[in-house]
Amino acid sequence: MTKIAIVSDHGGFELKEYLKDFFSKEGISDLGVYEPVSVDYPIVIGKACEQLLSGEFDKLIALCGTGIGASMKANRYKGIRAALCHDEFTAEMSKRHNDANVLVLGGRVLGKDLATRIVQKWLSTDFEGGRHEKRINLLDS
Fold it and tell me: Which of 8, 25, 54, 94 fits a disulfide with 100 by CB distance 3.0 to 4.6 angstroms?
């Protein structure tokens, strides 16, 4: 069974809570924050990425206000392929061609319905492999 975690700073807190509840049947683990109090996104996103890389989880959904800061922090780790997605197509392609292991969303940018569809698409899409495998390997070289 795939282990999925979700994390946010204060800017993504409200959407994180909604998504966590909506996808409760997926058994998503909440890595915080647990209240909408200002925090430094590099700290909370960094800790979650370290847990993903250690094998505690297979996939991570990360949120901040715009998604920009969370994606910048996540992509500093070798082995992380974080994709900031704003629609279902980018979510699909982030998995199909890039094997993204972190989905990044902007809590202040996306509505709940669109965010839900993005997560559904991302979770249900598989990596195509083939010619894309070589490119994935080049990311960490």
Answer: 94
Strand 102-106's sheet: what is its strand order? 29-30, 4-8, 59-64, 102-106, 82-84
Question: How far lies 91's CA from each of 61, 82, 87, in Å?
Answer: 12, 11, 6
- Cβ atoms 96, 42 nearer than 8 A: no
* CATH 3.40.1400.10, domain 4-139, yes or no: yes
Dump pLDDT digits (tens) for 65-97.
999 999 999 999 999 999 999 999 999 999 999
What pTM does this model have? 0.96
The residues spanned by each domain of the chain are: 4-139
